[in-house]
Amino acid sequence: MQQDPVAEFLDRLAEVPERVELANGLRNFLPVCFLELGLANTRAVCKIDSKGTNFEGTPDQECTWTGFLVGRNLLLTNHHVLPSLDAAREAICLFNFQLGVTFSPLETIGIRLQPDRLTSRLTLTSSTPNRGSSN
Predict the structure, then answer these.
(1) 3-state secondary structure string, 48-67?
(2) Can you tell me the distance from the alpha carbon of 69 to that of 46, in angstroms, rounded to the nearest whole number?
(3) Options 2.40.10, 3.40.190, 3.20.20, 2.40.160; which CATH number does 5-130 get?
(4) Do residues 134 and 107 lie in contact, with contact meaning Cβ atoms separated by under 8 Å?
(5) Which of 17, 34, 62, 91 is the most buried (most CB within 10 A)?
(6) Which pLDDT score, from 0 to 100, does residue 96 have?
(7) Highest taxon of the source (predicted)?
(8) What is the pLDDT of residues 9-46, one digit of tens each?
């Protein structure tokens, strides 16, 4: 049985000598708001689950990718993630796909893409949220 990755990390951390960091004379501390800003920015990132022909041309492949919102109802990802309109139509984007403070999965927001609403051939797509999905 594979050990929980968090428990494994904590076990390895316990083996580290007490003094692993030395002062270098530079004040390189960041304010706590740096962490809050990082957390806020994760809200734009999503996990993309798709099925179709992958970037190597192999059909009927289940793939997991990433993308992020760059504007209202605009998702940006690489072309090989959504290589066709059919792939974009079938893809599901899961936002908030992460562990919470108790290391349990949080409730996700699943979104089905609507690439037909675009007037451009760019790999940008609009979406309609479907709240209440879970991991």
Answers:
(1) EEEEECCCCCCCCEEEEEEE
(2) 8
(3) 2.40.10
(4) yes
(5) 91
(6) 95
(7) Bacteria
(8) 777 777 766 655 656 667 778 889 999 999 999 999 99
Q: What is the pTM of this model?
A: 0.62
Binned at pLDDT 50, 70 and 90, residue 51 comes out as confident
Non-local CB neighbours of 99 within 8 Å, separated by 6+ positions: 105, 106
SS3 content of the chain, % helix, strand, coil (to 5): 20, 30, 50
Phi and psi at residue 130, in whole multiples of 5°? -130, 90
Residue spans per domain, the chain: 5-130
Measured at the CA of 58, the angle between CA 56 and CA 62, to 5 degrees, comes to 100
Nearest partner of 88 among 53, 119, 56, judged by Cα? 53
Kindly state the DSSP code that residue 117 receives in the 8-state scheme. Answer: G
* CA 3/CA 20 separation, integer angstroms: 25
b or e along 102-135 (b: 16 or more beta carbons within 10 Å of the residue's beta carbon)? eeeeeebbbbebebeeeeeeebbbbbeeeeebee
